[in-house]
Amino acid sequence: MIEILLDATVRAGTPILFATLGAILNERAGIINLGIEGLMLIGALAGFAGTFASGSLLVGVLAAFFAALAAGCLHAFVTVQMRGNQIVSGLALTMFGIGITALFGRGMVGATIQGFERVAIPGLSQLPIVGNAFFNQDLLIYFSFLLVVAMAFFFYRTRWGLALRTAGENPAAADTCGVPVSLTRFLAVIIGSGIVGIGGAYLSLATTPMWIENMSAGRGWIAVALVIFASWSSYRALAGAYLFGGITAMQLRFQAMGTTVSAHILQMLPYFFTILVLVISTIRLQKGASQQPEGLGQPYDREDRK
Amino acid sequence: MKRLVWLALSLVLALPLFLSLPGCSQQEEKTEAPPTQPKPEVSAKASAKEIQAGFIYVGPVGDAGWTYAHDQGRQEMEKLDYVKPSTFIESVPEGAESARVISGLVRKGSNLVFTTSFGYMDATLEVAESFKDVVFMHCSGYKSSENVGNYFGRMYEPRYLSGIVAGSMTQKGVIGYVAAFPIPEVIRGINAFTLGVRSVNPKTEVRVVWTQTWFDPGIERDAADSLLDVGADVLAMHQDAPATLQAAEARGAYVIGYNSDMRSFAPNAFLTAPVWNWGTLYTQIAEQVSNGTWKSESIWYGMQQELVQLAPLSAKVPADVQALVADKTAAIKAGTLHPFAGPLKDQAGTIKVAAGSVPSDGDLLGMNYFVEGVQGTIPQ
């Protein structure tokens, strides 16, 4: 039973994980991105259409990455280049994503593709309990593991990562040290957006290999909240995404098993944990342990006098 | 100061993005339009009057389910030569806000308006109050007025038949049912389905999982997987997305669809589906409004009027089951078979419908208990 639960947890958590990682990359550079939901949809449609047209899942994933990256350019242009309001621009991006995918997705409704299949890693997939859940999954899930580690390495072990974090914490200081703040922020926004797009593609290529309008069904907003829960760390994003995926999977499975636990209580679980998580992160915040980038949400203009 | 300028600029930049949403732009347009009187051409005339229909949809036309089925009906209705090309607005949120959208449709000249979700009920009545010359039809509600009729289908009839198919095809005696919300419409469907299953296979149990959403492909898929994990080998569902079908296809189980014929999503797993056929009803209403015979009523049509149907059975269903389903279909259409005919017991074994009687429509519309054979609870 635990094996099945873990497996369902990983599969339900992965789209949220990609979206959260993408959002973290944005916010580490100081740019709030509320367009995650729209970017996921753009990724989902582009991924599905790419695979449908070419027959190759790799092409689909790349299409999702670059389509969401292109849409992220809009947000980057408004927030970094024009120094516009990040909240407004992000919300507009979500609206834009919902609308444009509905428009261009018409022809894709009802089309079918062969989605991602499980690929067992020899040896590791035989491990008791965790083997099946973590090492008998599809390639995108393995990629998400790599991305979590790679992102942590990038932030704390590379020069570029340091430059990116500084651009988010204190852009003026970064500028003084010769970091090209606007360029750094621009790249962080568009690459982060591309990663969010892969999260969307996971839905349309692996979870349910099809395209339906609005298929992300609010996962983008969960990711926005998870960034705070994860306090901008990719490892905690992994934990958060799996926690949320796992609670949903668990309550559905309890129902299927016909437990006598009240369906009320089971369905309350995700919300209960959401509140719990918010309380915990607020307490951490009050203790001064906040990891929030100092410059988050503030446009940087070299000529603004402090 | 400078920041304010940039804020204004970004708002201006963002504006076209908002306007690019088809639904939004239309709504904006309507609020700005000065309130005008309904056009004189919509006044009641006995001769064949032209129909300009308007539709309010709760989801996107591309949902492959509920809204898709209504839109098929709309297109069917447009085949009448006095029906002018109709307007529809997708993804209109339910509730008071929808009144604005509905009256917008009327101001643009619609003289027959269909509002196709439960949550538009009060808004429809409110708008209808100010446009007495326009005919309103509300789907799945229970209120009506002088110029507002309501309509729905006895989906439990084909659900019962689909249960017969499922009960005949299960090997393990466990059938899974992915259900949206614990409301009478859904509960009625689960019960009718279970009664169909147990009419051919009395030992079989139907396990229910609530998703608490009409539309979330990811959760629907997960719910379907969870039922397969506990041994279900046939799945049925009451959801708007075809995710359950894909789950069954991927795991080599059988599946019963819903809303529209979704077999393309599960060519091997698909057995049949109870489906909506709104076209016949919409055509009939357009005719009545056109020749002036329309009057407000509550329509609850079944298989006899072909508002609800069972999609053609898969070739995997054995010939004797096909024949049985054909027999039962004929019996339902003839009125000799009622899926909820007594004796009918609930989960605890209490008699809910006495032997020899059938529940009234009121009882059916308020059904809030599971029949014997359903494994699951109704969150109250």
Report on the architecture of this protein:
- Chain A is mainly α.
- Chain A has a two-stranded antiparallel ribbon with strand order 1-2.
- Chain A has a single domain (2-298), classed as ABC transporter involved in vitamin B12 uptake, BtuC.
- The radius of gyration of chain A is 20 Å and the shape is globular.
- Chain A is built from 12 helices and 2 strands.
- Chain A starts with a helix and ends in a 20-residue tail after the last helix.
- With 380 residues, chain B is α/β, with parallel strands linked by helices.
- Chain B is built from 12 helices and 16 strands.
- Chain B has helices spanning 2-19, 22-32, 66-77, 98-107, 121-130, 156-169, 184-200, 217-229, 243-251, 278-291, 319-334, 361-365; strands at 51-56, 83-89, 112-115, 135-139, 148-153, 174-179, 205-210, 234-238, 254-256, 270-272, 274-276, 298-301, 308-310, 344-345, 351-353, 374-375.
- In chain B, the strands form 4 sheets. Chain B has a 6-stranded parallel sheet. Chain B has a 6-stranded parallel sheet with strand order 10-9-8-6-7-16, sandwiched between helices.
- The radius of gyration of chain B is 23 Å and the shape is globular.
- Chain B starts with a helix and ends in a 5-residue tail after the last strand.
